[in-house]
């Protein structure tokens, strides 16, 4: 239901995701917002202090937990309904929008909920007496002199936040779910990963990717075999061109099939098998790995998503042995949709001996 992306370059949001990610916690207002704020029922708002000794206390607005949970549910549902065939078909045959369509009606209700939440957040931030400048919202509002690009106009700001929420939540969560599901099927690989992690100094951080090659390969292989956005986003050709020798007329909507490309037997050996080791072999076709798309409009969240997956998976595997739950091993067939999710499953997380203890 999103309009196809035009390749005419619109001003791109520029900020450094890894930098936000790696800012040390006590001085990061992102952390401050989410971790140090307190809900004050009498005032019906969250407040928190900088608390780092470097300035006056600040008051920040973070939505109450119930509101956040409802928003998170709304995003999950929205992606599900958006991926439904009755809604997807409208991208290809827009005339069908004139006919009654319960899926479309539900989608529009969810979009309304999403927009109200985003708008409320912007207003809360703007009403803040001393808004933090080094949050994503602060940067988009042009309050961070260190961030490139000026303030965004209100509609652009709104859609930029929507893009971040839609693009940045379910995708990464789905990839983490898939990684765990595959590792339940390969306990011996889990043991090798744990050995790699326990041989490293301290818990994994985003800067450790080069030092933990098997963990990094596991993230890549998960993104290859089950790309969370299997059909990326539709793109519209602005002029006549060709692709792989095939003519493409101006106005054609192209839907890249990343799932199929990443299982092309001409490129990947045993393409349907979960084999992180393939990325450790010399000559691995890493350049053909495209879970984030490619080109000028590829995913701007790639650095953040890779860092999140690397760190979260590493922390889980360092501390726990993962074993199947009472229902046995999880299925590995995804349900089609905008985001390729694994079927829900239960597992046992058995604490491991902390590294360094005899
Ligand atoms: C494993 C996690 C993720 C995957 C697999 C993924 C994948 C993708 C893909 C395939 C696209 C479409 C690229 C194209 O059209 O060629 C995309 C677009 C986008 N993603 Fe991600 N993404 C992930 C995480 C994130 C995160 C964490 C964020 C932000 C916090 C994000 C924000 C966006 C945005 C804003 C777009 C639209 C870009 C544009 O229109 O130019 N994504 N993503």
Number of self-contained structural domains: 2
Most strands sheet: 3 strands, mixed
Terminal CA distance: 57 Å
What's the count of strands? 9
In order across it, which strands form the biggest sheet?
1-4-7
The helix fraction, in percent, is: 40-55%
Q: What does this protein look like?
A:
- The protein is built from twelve helices and nine strands.
- It is mainly α and 358 residues long.
- It has two domains: 15-168, no CATH class; 182-351, Orthogonal Bundle (Cytochrome p450), CATH 1.10.630.10.
- The strands form four sheets. It has a three-stranded mixed β-sheet with strand order 1-4-7, with no helix packed on it.
- A hairpin with a 4-residue loop joins strand 2 (38-40) and strand 3.
- The structure holds protoporphyrin IX containing FE.
- The site of protoporphyrin IX containing FE (HEM) has 23 residues, from helix 7, helix 8 and helix 12.
Brief write-up:
The protein has 358 residues and is mainly α. 42% of the residues lie in helices and 8% in strands.
Keywords:
12 helices; two-stranded antiparallel ribbon; three-stranded mixed beta sheet; Cytochrome p450; disordered N terminus; 42% helix; 358 residues; 8% strand; binds protoporphyrin IX containing FE; mainly alpha
């Amino acid at each position: 239901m999103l309009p196809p992306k035009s390749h005419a370059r619109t001003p791109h949001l520029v900020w450094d995701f890894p930098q936000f990610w790696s800012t040390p916690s006590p001085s990061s207002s992102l952390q401050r917002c989410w971790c140090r704020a307190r809900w004050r029922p009498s005032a019906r708002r969250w407040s928190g202090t900088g608390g780092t000794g470097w300035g006056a206390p600040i008051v920040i607005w973070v939505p109450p937990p119930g509101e956040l949970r409802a928003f998170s549910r709304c995003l999950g549902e929205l992606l599900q309904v958006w991926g439904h065939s009755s809604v997807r078909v409208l991208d290809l045959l827009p005339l069908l929008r004139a006919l009654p369509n319960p899926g479309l009606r539900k989608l529009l209700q969810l979009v309304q909920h999403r927009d109200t939440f985003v708008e409320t957040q912007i207003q809360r931030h703007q009403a803040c007496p001393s808004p933090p400048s080094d949050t994503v919202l602060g940067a988009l509002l042009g309050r961070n002199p260190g961030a490139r690009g000026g303030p965004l106009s209100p509609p652009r700001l709104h859609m930029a936040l929507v893009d971040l929420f839609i693009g940045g939540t379910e995708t990464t969560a789905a990839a983490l779910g898939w990684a765990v599901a595959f590792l339940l099927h390969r306990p011996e690989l889990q043991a090798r990963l744990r050995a790699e992690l326990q041989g490293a100094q301290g818990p994994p951080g985003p800067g450790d990717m080069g030092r933990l090659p098997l963990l990094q390969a596991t993230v890549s292989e998960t993104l290859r075999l089950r790309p969370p956005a299997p059909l990326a986003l539709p793109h519209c050709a602005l002029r006549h061109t060709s692709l792989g020798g095939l003519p493409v007329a101006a106005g054609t909507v192209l839907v890249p099939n990343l799932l199929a490309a990443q299982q092309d037997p001409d490129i990947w050996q045993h393409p349907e098998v979960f084999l992180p080791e393939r990325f450790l072999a010399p000559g691995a076709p890493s350049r053909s790995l495209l879970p984030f798309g490619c080109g000028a409009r590829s995913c701007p969240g790639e650095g953040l998503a890779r860092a999140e997956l690397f760190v979260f998976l590493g922390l889980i595997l360092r501390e726990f042995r993962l074993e199947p739950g009472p229902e046995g091993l999880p299925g590995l067939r995804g349900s089609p949709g905008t985001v390729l999710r694994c079927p829900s499953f239960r597992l046992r997380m058995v604490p491991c001996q902390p590294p360094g203890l005899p």
